[in-house]
Write a structure and sequence with these properties.
Aspartate Aminotransferase, domain 2, alpha/beta, globular
């Protein structure tokens, strides 16, 4: 099995050294700094592993269940602390999918499941979210796509890259669809907690015995460098399979990731961090919506949740060419081309990152680049 590069990662690799002056596509809240945690850190904290549980610090696993609203439904043993939601997805996908199995994914969507499924030699069935329909997940098409041949359904809620949010009734319907076929249902909730339209959706790990919820401290809490996330599932065998695969990759969690995430998710501290993230995200999104409205050549479906969405370019502009031009002098502004999501006529806009991303300047430069593009 060989994992091949995806366009999204390829673009990030190609542009790592570009040193942009502004970023208009940041997908996470402004990051806290280590100093914010020093008062709660113990200088005698051992840098050995946690020495208590291969699934992760028990207190951290309790916090994970509480923030997902699962503390009365799931037990700490249903949670595995992982190196981000990415590792959680990886462990589940790799242990569930065999060559020839069918996996149903959404498009546009987070590419990880498709990349791994391709490497495994699984059959990929794509269900298309359409812009004309607000990027909603077409559940009728999902119903047709998920059959007894389906091993796994993978979606992100809120969706990366469109910010579409499945409401409770839709999540429940998705569970019925998976259950009818006996399929596993993995819902990646890495953007949960930043809902602008509607409440946070329920986590499938609490609704379905083959439901898998993944998430992390990377996005709403802005702590992606900690590499700390989770896999939640009530199926003991799947959880053990994930522990076994992880033992043969990174073995155990990094201790500082666990310790700092445990502090960040403590009751009280977590709520105030989320309040701040929501206030900043909402303010930046209002600014972005007003800015998109003012651009004759752009339109978008404003994200219902999360910090990113897709904006449509004029037909004649290719997203790769536009993103590359924008990154060069005189604009020096980074955004992700829609080609990273098989949407070559779109760009990904984002409102995260705080002051460091220089959003005001970035938006001015995107507007300028669009005007100049159209006049040449
Ligand atoms: C939908 C989705 N899942 C997973 C990840 C990876 O997140 P983490 O940093 O928690 O591994 C990302 C990162 O952008 C994402 O957008």
């Amino acid at each position: 099995m060989k994992v091949k590069i995806h366009r999204l990662f390829q673009y990030l690799l190609e542009t790592t050294e570009a040193a942009p002056e502004a970023i208009v596509g940041f997908s996470l809240s402004q990051s806290p700094v280590l100093g914010d945690f020093l008062d709660d850190l113990d200088p005698a904290q051992t840098l050995d592993w946690n020495n208590r549980d291969f699934r992760g610090l028990p207190e951290l696993r309790e916090h994970v269940l509480r923030q997902a609203g699962l503390d009365r439904v799931c037990k700490a043993q249903d949670v595995l602390i992982t190196a981000g939601a990415a590792e959680a997805n990886y462990l589940a996908i790799m242990q569930l999918l065999q060559p020839g199995d069918e996996i149903v994914v959404e498009t546009p969507g987070w590419p990880q499941a498709e990349v791994l499924a391709k490497a495994i030699g699984a059959k990929i069935i794509r269900v298309e979210r359409r812009e004309a329909n607000g990027w909603a997940l077409p559940l009728d098409e999902m119903r047709d796509a998920v059959t007894p041949r389906t091993k796994l359904v993978f979606v992100s809620n809120p969706n990366n890259p469109t910010g579409h949010l499945l409401q409770q009734a839709e999540v429940e319907e998705l569970v019925r669809i998976a259950d009818r076929a006996g399929a596993w249902l993995l819902v990646d909730e890495v953007y949960a907690g930043l809902e602008w339209q509607g409440p946070r959706a329920p986590s499938v790990a609490g609704l379905y015995e083959r439901g898998i919820t993944t998430g992390s401290v990377s996005k709403a809490l802005g702590m992606q460098g900690l590499r700390t996330g989770w896999l939640i599932c009530q199926d003991a065998e799947l959880m053990m399979d994930a522990v076994i695969l992880r033992e043969n990759a990174s073995e155990i969690m990094n201790i500082m990731g666990e310790v700092i995430a445990e502090i960040a998710l403590r009751p009280g501290r977590y709520e105030s961090a989320m309040l701040k993230a929501r206030e900043e995200g909402a303010a930046n999104l209002r600014q972005m919506n007003a800015w998109v409205d003012a651009q004759e050549s752009l339109s978008w479906v404003s994200p219902q949740a999360g910090l990113i969405g897709l904006a449509r370019l004029p037909q004649a502009i290719d997203s790769d060419a536009f993103a590359t031009t924008l990154l060069a002098e005189p604009y020096r502004t980074f955004l992700l081309p829609g080609s990273a999501y098989d949407q070559p006529n779109h760009i990904r806009l984002g409102v995260g990152g705080g002051a460091a991303v220089n959003l005001d300047a970035g938006l001015e430069r995107v507007a300028l680049a669009l005007r100049e593009w159209e006049t040449t």
